[in-house]
Amino acid sequence: MAELLLLRRKPRAVVFAALRRALIGAVICGAIVATAAGCASKPDPESTRADLSEVTEAPMAPEEIDEYDATLHPDPMVDAVDCTPYLVVTSRGTGEGASGQLLSPVVRMIAESRPDEVQTVDLDYPADAEVKIGATRGARILIDTLNVQADACPEQRFILLGYSQGALIVGDAIASPEVRLIGASVGELAPDAAERVLAVVLYGDPRFRGAESYDVGDFDPSVNGVLPRPAGSLDAFADRLRDYCVSGDIVCQSGFDLDESGHVAYYSNGMQQDGAAFVITRLGPPESAEDDAAPSKGRTPVGGAEPDESD
Prior knowledge:
Rossmann fold, six-stranded parallel sheet, signal, disulfide bond
C-alpha cells in the first residue's frame, strides 16, 4: 500500500508519522480489503444526512425523553466489564451492522498493539433513522459505561471511537449538557471518568466545527457539519481528540453540491490507520515491556550495590 499523505493541517511529530507508516504496512488485509471492496454494508450518505437533520425538528415525546433521564432513573443502565488496562468503546454509523463497521479495523490495530490489554464494547444503540431517541439512548449508555468503569477499575483508561451518528453521540456525551443536541438529560461524565479518556477519534461527524484545532482532513474550514456544535464545546478534550472530515462529505461538510461518496471515503482513504496511529501514540508502554524493565525480586539492579545477605 502506498504511503498515505499526511492530512492534518498542522505538522505532526516525527514519531507519529513513522508509526503511521508502520501501521499502514501492517494492516490486516481481510478487514480493510473486504470493506473497501464493498463486502461490508456501508451507510447511505444522503439518507444519513436527512435522518440527522430531523434532530432539530419536532421534539421527542415526554415518555421517550424520560426513559433515559438520569434524574428520573439514576441507576446505571450497564454493568461493569473486566478491568483491562484499556477499554475501547465504538459508536457505529447509521445503518452499520454488528460486523464490517468503519471502526472495526481501527479497533483491531489498537488491540494488536497491546495484546491482551484491550477490551472493546460496541455501544448498544440502534444506529437507525430514529436518531433522536436512538442517539439519546447511546449517549446515556456511553456515559453510564465510563462512569461505572471508572468506579470499578481505577487504572483503566478509555478510548472512544465514533462514526457519523456515532460521532454525534460520542461528541455530545463528552460535552456539557447545555451544548448537546441529544441527551441533555442523560447525565454527565464524572470528573474521574473524563480524566480517564485517553483518546477520542471521530469520522464524518455531523457536529463538525471547521475551525477547531483537532480537525483533520482536506475539508473547507469555513464549512461546518449539518448539526455544528458551538465553537470550543470540546476544548477540554482538544489534545486527546481527532475529528476527521473530507471535503466531499455531506455530513461533516453541509453544502448540497458535494459528492455523496465523501461520507464513506473513510473506509478506504487511510484515515482508519491514521486514527489508530494517533490512539497508539497516546497509550503507555505495553505491560510486558514494563514487566521486563522492572528489576526481578532478589536480584541486583544494573548499577546497584550487591544485596546485604547478613540479615
